[in-house]
Amino acid sequence: MASYIARRLLAVLGVLWAMTLLIFGIVHLLPGNVAYMILGEYATAEAVATLEARLGLNDPLWLQYWRWFSGLLGGDFGRSLVMDRPAGPLIADALAHSAILAGISIVLVAIIGIALGIHSAVHKGTLSDRVLTLAQYFFIAVPEFFWCILLILLFAAWLGWLPATGYTPIGEGGVLRWATHLILPVFTLVSGLIAHVSRLTRSSMIETLESGYVLAARARGVPEGRVLRRHALPNALLPTVTVLAVDVGILIGGIVVVETVFAYPGLGRLLIFAIENHDLPLLMAGMMVVTTVYAVANLVADILYAFLNPRIRYGRAAA
Amino acid sequence: MADPGQAGKGPLLDLRGLSVSYATGRGQLAALQAISLAIPRGGAMGLVGESGSGKSSVVLAILGLLGEGATVAADAARFDGEDLFANAASLRGRRIGVVFQDPSAALNPALTIGSQIAEPLVLHKGMSQSEADARTIALLAEVGLPRAETVARAYPHQLSGGMKQRAVIAGALACEPDLLLLDEPTTALDVTVEAQILDLLEGLRARRGLSLLLVSHNLGIVDRLCDDLTVLYAGRVVEQGAATTLLDIPAHPYTRGLMGALPRADKGRIGRLVPIPGGLPDLTKPDPGCNFRTRCAFVEPPCSAPQALVSPPGEEATGRLARCRRAGEELAWPVPPLPERTVRGEGETLLEANALSRSFALGGWLGRVSFAGGRPHLAPQAVVRAVDGVSLVVRKGEVLGLVGESGCGKTTLGRLVLRLIESDGGTLRFAGETVPQRPGAGFRRRAQIVFQNPDSSLNPRKTVAEIIRRPVTLFGIARGAAADEEVDRLLTLVRLSPAYRGRYPHQLSGGEKQRIGIARALASQPDFLVCDEAVSALDVSVQAAVLNLLDDLRDRLGVAYLFISHDIGVIAHVADRIAVMYRGGVVEEGPAAAILSPPYHPYTEALLSAVPLVGARGRAASRIRLAGDVSSPSGAGGCRFAHRCPRRIGPVCDEVAPPVIEPVPGHRIACHLPPETLAAMPPALGAA
Questions:
Q1: What is the ipTM of this complex?
Q2: CA distance A319 to chain B (A)
């Protein structure tokens, strides 16, 4: 198991290194002058030359890459051009806010999605399964920005129960006010994903319940509840675990939209800000952080997968 | 509740008039139509039938696990005097144990072997976990698993197929059941492992006084284990009685048909098999009369009236029953005249493989990263030598049979000689010319393949005509209207009417699909066919028809075959010469008759003596049994069979490659034993 984790960790480091090349490449190898891109097309030649000197844009590419890469290794994420502040603390602050949103969302997706999926599989073909199926397809089909607008109109503008935008730290307004700012963004983020995860869990649970070892467990006289919990569930969850890791990626994409619409001060909004203002160092640092989050989520999924699946935990060595 | 007056007397299991039907889109499918069977205490009943006969429904009905789509009805269903259906939930796992066909499917991959066996002990017997664990280890030892403690802690994927099936049997025995249901318990296993499992079941039955219900399509293993037989056809019992008499002189035409269609290793080449024409009747509209009569050679007009399951005249005392009004008559199954066997195997060389090899890498590069010794480094790539320096010759119009157990490299070799996969070493010559790694259309036209599974080798989106027409036009055999005529000709050749042209594969039966696979392979008018387990997926009655067809094609078209099979009976029936493969190499090769009788390679001897034969009950004692299975490790350089060989001489077998002995020209055995010892071996297939 330790060597399996070490091997996965090695793969994650490889992916992250490849991403530094890719991110650096996208920003620096694209046609066009980087300084012009930042300053706009009407910049004076003098301003361009100053910026190029400041960013070291006249140095050979490998040297520029090495400066950025070695900075990353030492924890230096570069400096935001627009705000003229180190990018590291900016991103850390935004990441903390987004992590609250994403963390609550992924936990809800996992718990509610799996529970609904199991319920549907066990009660396959019944009324509750059919109603759930209908609802799941509805939530998968409707895009999240639609929910953003509808929810703001309904709960903020019309009913006035919840704030439409913004964020209040717990220290300032208490837990209740903090939570009211989270309800609408979280609902928007999880609705589609819960539907997706529960559909997947349902089909893999149904397949597992039809497997030979579940029949064999029933033939041994194992009570049905125990058959579900102990014999079917660990196997049925394998595909779900993999998909939950992929869903982290979808969640990050969703966060960019949701944070922009609800004016939530997170990483997604910071990235949009960096793109709009051509703040390349901030953008590169932000993309690196997002990549790392995704890679770590997949590492966690791999480890969880191995925990559920002894074929990965233990090799083929015969007993 | 148990009636104290009845318990302990009468049969252990008594089913009377059991009917099972399933709801389908076309109406109720009558899977079982009023079947009756009784198993006495300590008795063993065999339930025989082809696919679709309803035998698995019997097992699930006894367990009460048929599911919601099924309707069950019975005049009486009693287990030890109690109502079976009312008590099914408390009987299964406690008094009725079950072993399913595929041990890989029946064991939960996420739980240890031990926890799955201990579970019913804790649940039903009220044992503590530590008591149950101790009992589990004792059970695993009882079913002959070495190092039972290690096995109990292992996960299913860490064990071989034979070890898994032993573990499943140990689990079924955990609560000391009175009745063990065995649903095709050895069908997923290799023949040498099957023999071990049958020995185990025989021993357990004698030791524990178990009653058995053995469900199988294999008459040989049923004959070996059972006292009584029930023959099931399309949901009805057609014949019932003592195993010995029933198999010696079958009374019902269907049972006779099964026996006539069975290729038998001990009989060698008996000319033609007798297939049963036609297929299963439509179970959604059960025929009130004899439901076999559309396939029966002895049919008469009164057969359309309902037939009773009664003793044939003169056999009332034996308790034998048959559902046929002509059962008492002297009837011989109409055997078609034996065609003159043309002498083959003397022709010129068609295909010549010389030291062909192929290895496969295990795992990707990341799997090679090792942390052994504390420092990450790349370990050498693990490889499997699937085919290791195999040389063989196929002559024109000859059938070379290739036998061996799963994983021995048969399929890889079949694909290597067609250059469907590239070889790592060795050369291949066809009709005197060297075949390159990527051969041209000329070789492809002349050398074709029939795959094991027609379901996955026929494109489900193409009609029969499209499937067969493609090679006809591709290889320039015919074009336009002539190609359509050619398709009709090929369909007729494999005995299908041209009306099949427009059908899709899912509209065909298994035997018909396999015939389309053969027609497609023949479409390019090849000289050489590789038949890779071409009849393994088929029922005996259909298998006989396909084997006869392949036989005829060879006689009429002079096609040569490399016929790959794990079934010794089939190989003995079709092959002119036989090559025996073990762990990537050929250990023995020679004319069919020479392979099937001594002198043998010790592996061939073990393989042949493991074959379950019909009507050879006394043979068990003289059998050779192999320990372990193919995946056991072996040293490099020596004989590949040394680690399991019951006739191992000593270290020489592990270290030195065996010499090739040639007792008669053309018969080669790779073994260290002196030729005299090999020649003195007893015949493994019995005295026949």
A1: 0.81
A2: 6
